[in-house]
């Protein structure tokens, strides 16, 4: 009896896309030579041509609802290399909805690479996913929208995910046992500018096939946009923390006046600094709570994140920064009281330049937000000099996805920042309390510690430094009177005998 494809798929139901487990990858075309030098040459060649975006998928795929998109799920039993003894496995994401432009994925073995063809049989279809899209899966415009990497992190034979590339130049990773939180990007252009932001895309990937004993997997990517091209290499070592060594070479098509290197994207809704604005049962809601900077002068700066009422851009001017990152320091479940989102388990991300980045500024963009579904925080390094069209620029750096940076100046960390109104009805003021963790010199006389408390507008009190039995460290509390000021920059630091004992606490207060 002859059975049509539609009848067959209908009979199979949710298992309509079934194919043998550990299906062999589908390649298209012949193997092509590949090397990092070739990738750079390709990026440079494309920079001399007019930008051509990747083609979009058919309208029906772009018009998928969220529930429909989620109803087509990759079958991890059919992951690339699942039928081998290789140390890593790779999954794929289908296109549509938020991902209208497929990417190209190539597998590198030796000095050559082959392009993967789109194979819908690698996915499990649930009933919400439109059956007619399955029947049209041979459309040459279809392709994968991203990739996911997995490794035996905690148990032999159990491959757990640790990194994803999907959407424009976005990617994210986690340390072993963590939950996904903040993201990174290959490049940021014109973030927060009035003319609008440009989002370069990773259009083509080359993944080096790992060996059986490999502890690192390497992914190369071609970045493309109207303003620039770029050649990227990511050498990824999963663990806690997950480490990624990034080599990026840019070939601008136009002069890049506002470029963000090593951009990080996160979410901050509220904590103890702005808790009163939100009628919410939880204590705090954020993927990251502060920007940490180890500047070229050797200072450790801590800037608590804010959810402002209007767009705020802060620039921390520097020369040869030693590192920066968005940190999540609240690590107890009750710090958030959220049993589903698990914000206490989200990774911090620390960037360490692998070369001298010269003059520029760590830039923080804070966007007003009323919901936790929106990423409203961006941080990146902005070179002072524009990147000229027709030139080559390399930026190499290391990423650590996990907790606190392993290599930093040993000073007391800021544990928490609390801000609230005072109770003098005649003179409105603000109470600020900054908690620092323990330091060996805190065991001595606190009176011998100098408290630097300052503001560029309004007035601040000298402050009171006390032991905090709840944290084991100390708390510095002070009064801030803004007067007529609508905005003020606050600064706190603890010093003894000319030596800094703490991170420098910085905060932009707004009325």
Describe the structure.
With 511 residues, the protein is mainly beta. Helix content is 7%, strand content 41%. The chain is built from 5 helices and 35 strands. It has helices spanning 5-12, 36-47, 59-62, 66-70, 131-135, and strands at residues 27-33, 72-74, 88-93, 104-109, 112-116, 123-125, 146-152, 159-166, 170-173, 183-185, 188-189, 201-208, 217-224, 228-237, 242-252, 259-266, 268-270, 285-286, 290-294, 300-304, 312-319, 323-327, 348-353, 359-366, 377-383, 393-402, 414-421, 430-436, 450-455, 459-460, 464-467, 474-481, 487-496, 499-500, 504-510. The strands form 5 sheets. It has a 16-stranded mixed beta sheet that branches. Strand 33 (487-496) and strand 34 form a beta hairpin. It is globular. It starts with a helix and ends with a strand. The model is unreliable at 1-19 (pLDDT under 50).
Cα-to-Cα separation, first versus last residue: 76 Å
Count the strands? 35
Q: Count helical runs.
A: 5
Mean pLDDT: 93
Roughly what fraction of the amino acids lie in strands?
35-45%
The Rg value, from CA coordinates, equals: 25 Å
Major sheet description: 16 strands, mixed
Q: Pick out the low-confidence regions.
A: 1-19
Which structural category fits the helices and strands? mainly beta
Q: Helical residue percent?
A: under 10%
Based on Cα principal axes, name the global outline: globular
Quick structural summary:
By secondary structure, this protein is mainly beta. Helices cover 7% and strands 41% of the residues.
Tags for this entry?
single chain; 511 residues; mainly beta; 16-stranded mixed sheet; ten-stranded antiparallel sheet; disordered N terminus
């Amino acid at each position: 009896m002859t059975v049509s494809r539609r009848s067959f798929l209908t009979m199979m139901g949710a298992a309509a896309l079934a194919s043998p487990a550990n299906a062999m990858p589908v390649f298209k075309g012949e193997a092509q030579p590949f090397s990092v030098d070739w990738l750079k040459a390709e990026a440079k060649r494309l920079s001399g041509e007019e930008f051509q975006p990747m083609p979009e998928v058919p309208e029906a795929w772009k018009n998928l609802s969220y529930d429909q998109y989620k109803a087509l799920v990759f079958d991890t039993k059919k992951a690339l290399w699942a039928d081998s003894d290789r140390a890593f496995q790779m999954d794929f994401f289908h296109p549509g909805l938020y991902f209208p432009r497929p990417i190209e994925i190539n597998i590198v073995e030796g000095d050559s690479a082959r392009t993967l063809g789109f194979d819908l049989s690698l996915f499990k279809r649930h009933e919400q996913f439109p059956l007619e899209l399955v029947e049209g899966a041979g459309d040459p415009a279809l392709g994968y929208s991203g990739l996911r990497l997995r490794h035996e992190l905690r148990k032999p034979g159990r491959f757990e995910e640790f990194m994803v590339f999907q959407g424009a130049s976005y990617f994210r990773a986690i340390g072993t046992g963590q939950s996904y939180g903040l993201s990174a990007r290959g490049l940021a252009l014109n973030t927060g500018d009035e003319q609008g932001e440009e989002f370069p895309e990773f259009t083509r990937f080359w993944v080096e096939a790992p060996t059986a004993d490999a502890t690192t997997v390497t992914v190369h990517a071609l970045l493309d946009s109207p303003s620039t091209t770029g050649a990227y290499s990511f050498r990824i070592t999963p663990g806690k923390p997950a480490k990624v060594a990034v080599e990026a070479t840019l070939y601008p098509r136009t002069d890049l006046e506002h470029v963000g290197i090593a951009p990080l994207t996160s979410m901050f809704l509220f904590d103890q600094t702005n808790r009163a604005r939100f009628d919410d049962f939880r204590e705090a809601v954020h993927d990251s709570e502060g920007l940490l900077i180890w500047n070229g002068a050797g200072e450790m700066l801590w800037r608590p994140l804010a959810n402002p009422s209007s767009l705020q851009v802060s620039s921390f001017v520097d020369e040869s920064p030693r590192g920066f990152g968005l940190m999540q320091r609240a690590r107890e479940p009750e710090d958030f009281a959220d049993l589903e989102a698990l914000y206490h388990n989200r990774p911090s991300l620390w960037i360490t330049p692998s070369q001298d980045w010269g003059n520029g500024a760590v830039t923080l963009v804070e966007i007003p937000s009323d919901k936790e579904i929106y990423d409203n925080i961006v941080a990146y390094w902005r070179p002072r000099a524009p990147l000229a069209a027709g030139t080559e620029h390399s930026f190499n750096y290391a990423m650590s996805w996990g907790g606190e940076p392993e290599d930093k100046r040993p000073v007391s960390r800021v544990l928490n920042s609390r801000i609230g109104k005072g109770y003098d009805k005649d003179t409105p003021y603000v109470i600020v309390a900054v908690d620092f963790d323990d330091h060996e010199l805190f065991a001595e006389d606190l009176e011998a510690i100098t408290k630097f408390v300052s503001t560029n507008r309004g007035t601040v009190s000298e402050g009171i430094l006390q032991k905090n039995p709840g944290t084991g460290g100390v708390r510095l509390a002070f009064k801030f009177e803004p007067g007529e000021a609508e905005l003020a920059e606050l600064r706190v630091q603890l010093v003894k005998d000319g030596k800094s004992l703490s991170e420098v606490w910085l905060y932009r207060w707004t009325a």
